[in-house]
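So, who can interpret the following?
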Amino acid sequence: MLTDTDSTTACETMNHHSSVAPKVSVLMSVYNGSQYLREAIDSILNQTFANFEFIVIDDCSTDNSWEILNGYATQDSRIVLLKNEENIGLTKSLNKGIRVAKGEYIARQDADDVSLPCRFEKQLAVLEQDSDVALVSCDVEMIHSDGTYICILKQACEPELVAWHLLFYNHIAGHSQVVFKKDLAIELGSYNEDYRYSQDYELWCRLIKVSKFVIVPEPLLRQRRHKQSISNIKFNEQHSFALAQVSLNISSLINVSIDSEKADELYNFWIRSLKSDFFIDHQKVENLHRLMKCIYFSFISKQVELHQENIKLQRKICGLIGERFFDGLNQVSFRADPITKLRLSLIIFFWCPKIIYGYYFFMLPQRISQRIPFRKRQKFA
């Protein structure tokens, strides 16, 4: 059994005192994860890229996870086992793993997910090609508890847009599929242990300020949805920590304090969860519009300060904001509330005029013509 005090010695022993340091240190924390553990471990050991150490921290499991881990460790010298004498949570367990990691890069893996065989090979190719890239993620295939397909979560976008999205929500959309530079993460303080949940989002928000992220437009990980996952049983706590980070992101950018209620509003705006009753409140919509202008201009000013002015990026962001307000426009009836419809139209015109042109000159006439009975349409001929 390995404890905090002898973990470094154990790491050296399990790797047979190899003179060649591994390129990647794979970190996995396990707490009562025996149900899916074997599949997760096998997916790492079967990677096409083999120069890694696999650091697994058992966070004081009460099931047979430790026995499973020991069985694998006797068969593969790349596996390094650490065991917590008490349950300390994911954040502290990951920092414990980082402290003993020998690799240049940290790759994450959760005990209930499945990495596709070429995941490390493809992600490392991106990291090695561009020294400015500090983190590589990918699209994710969502699966049920039994492994059956749900959908593909497509998060890939231009690297320049990732920083914008991270202001409002965790656009990386998972923790288990990333590979990032170890030394830079350590330089920034590793995971913030004040964050028991959403610790990944908090670290990404610090990393993105000094580096570039790339999201590979291909699913390289299968993320499992099940009733015992942290995102399911600890949703409220996780969301609370995420909103705290959103508040910090926006407040530090615009130098104006943003409370959790406003942070939640921004979060929902960007994940398209604002309902029609929000958009019929003229004052709320106008306040959101003004806040988005403040955030946008502050963000672009920061890019200019960093000598990263990008007209294409500015147009892309304006288009995305316009699309979000357009979601609200589609939820409001012209016949029932024409004033709200017109107010939203003006806001969208500010952000992206072509959206409004397309709506009023193409989409709306087409919808109206489809609703007019055939006999009535003949009268206009």
